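Aim 2 progress update. The chain analyzed this quarter is reproduced below.
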Amino acid sequence: MKIRFPFVSLCRTAFLAACLMPFCSCSGESGYMSVSGYAQGGTYIVKFDISPMEKSGKDVYGIKAGIDSILARVDSSVSGYNKGSLLSRFNSGESIVPDSIFIDIYNKSCGYYDLTGGAVDVAAAPLFDIWGFGFTADSLPPASLVSETVKSCGLSRLKHSMEPGADGTVSPAGLLREGVSGPLPSLNYNAVAQGYSCDLVADYLSGLGIEDMLINIGGEIFCRGMNPGGKPWSIGVDKPEDGNNVPGAELQGTIEVGPGSCGVVTSGNYRKFYVKDGHKYAHTIDPRTGYPVSHSLLSATVIAPDAALADALATYCMVVGVDEAVRFISSRHGLEGYLIYSEDGRMKTWTSDGITVR
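Predicted structure tokens:
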């Protein structure tokens, strides 16, 4: 697969590592620079106009180190795959001294939980584990275990604001609401972490005076301004078919975004699933029921003011299905969506009024 700008393929799976080696280079396109590397189990690529930095005499070649530092901080804070991260230690029952990332992403996620009526729940990690989509390899749990797990996890049991104690620590038991007993909380930020990371990198670049940028971390995107050709950024959306595992290999369409700041994220069930006894189990779990979703929505692309929100709402759409996703996106200012669904054996699309798909 070739990755090139201003076109970017969009998906929720990581780009193939062999296709994108770490680099920092000028593109030769109107003073734009590309920076790339590895992060969060996949790769990232960032493109931005370095003209403001050149005019101010700032060192543009330190940007990659700055981006890598941000992504390393995210990994050490909220990665569930890094056994030494704050999140892994917290999930093991340890009291921790949270950093600003740990507190901020939790508080934002509580807001997403309220916004989506519990459909996006970062404290539902045990549900993903019992279905084999979390940090364990279990699958096909009995109904009794599903019911028990739904009752014993979730943000409904937890305080919706993380505030360290006088000693600066947060304990799993201390995060429980008053009067709540039972299992300690276990958190999983897979639905928001990459979008959140995009926003952090965008804030960093903005602090350097950079206005035109596109940040792609594992398929989650933040963009602002114009591409090197002076036009809106063009983003490809993959066709949501089983077996379409290479980002950009087969597209359903492309959308243009910008010049305003926005996050663009696509979620789908066609790359992460397993089949057992002839039944397909999607990786999207409805935390309110405890079961993998079963509906006609194949993928949901959401455009929101920031990438963390777009990330969360793309997941939300995949939880609730096409009808509720259309109602939700249509009723909220500042959101746009592109939904691909099946009907009578055929692939169909719905597009909100504010975007055009080509």
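The chain has nine helices and 16 strands. Residues 63-78 form the longest helix (16 residues). These observations will guide the mutagenesis experiments scheduled for the next reporting period.
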